[in-house]
Write the structure tokens for this entry.
Amino acid sequence: MWREAAAVTIGAGLLCLARSQYERGALAVETVEIVTDKVLRDRTLVFLSDLHNKEFGKGNAELLQAIDSVRPDAVLSGGDMMIAKGNADTRVPLSLFSSLSSRYPMYCGNGNHENRMTWERETYGRQYEVYKKQLTDMGVIYLEDESALLECDIRITALDLDECFYRKALLQRKEPMEQGYLEKKLGAGPSGQGPIGEPFQILLAHSPLYFKEYADWGADLTLSGHFHGGTIRLPWLGGVMTPQYQFFLPVCAGTFYIGEKAMVVSRGLGTHSINIRLNNRPQLVVLKVKRRALEKA
Ligand SMILES: [Fe+2]
């Protein structure tokens, strides 16, 4: 009897591994619509996150083709494009960003892997500065706790969270974020209404754990990733485990709202350490930011 049980278990495991191998290369292009009265016209934006050196086709041709097919007004990157673990090989993101920045305005924020290169100088030396210069030389708008406008009605800000906010934590415990932290890092958030009083505020914040704080700061749309969709996604229950070892964390993927403030959490494009994806295909997020139709009097 135990032999049959072992054979079934091994068979099921092999099937799961084969399925995971397939899913890791099966890019899903998914559209999220955000409606606001703060933009002057509709925009299409592409949001990339957690590439972790993954390549979809040679030179990421499949990913580039998927991005080209939606003809975005701009491409936004939410970080963790490489794997920084004792070394940081940046060739894959550099190649991708070189292609993208020649075609579209590109705005880049950091994840914990980019930031790690500055946290651990004895390991990475000046790799971060070299990487950043290579991107800015391409024309990428590289934002470190900074903001830039996309035309006059969209402002994009990228947050560099401190290392403590990425600590591995069991269960749902998270590092508290002190009041005023975001204002100290980013300056005052927007407070008024558009158009054209104040632009639509997008915040690239790699970890989605602080949505309330981001919304309170003034982010109309927060774009996050980091949790890779929770590795394995189960119906009703969502992501099983994040790279930070939270189990069944509700915000590890999806679209969330606090009033009119939205947060889109990408399942990411790649993996690292736990190289498994089940019911959790890599996600290219296409954002349709639409101007709310005025009601007729
Ligand atoms: Fe991350």
Notes: The pocket of fe (ii) ion is lined by residues 80, 111-112, 206, 226 (CB under 6 Å). Residues 2-24 form the longest helix (23 residues). The radius of gyration is 20 Å.
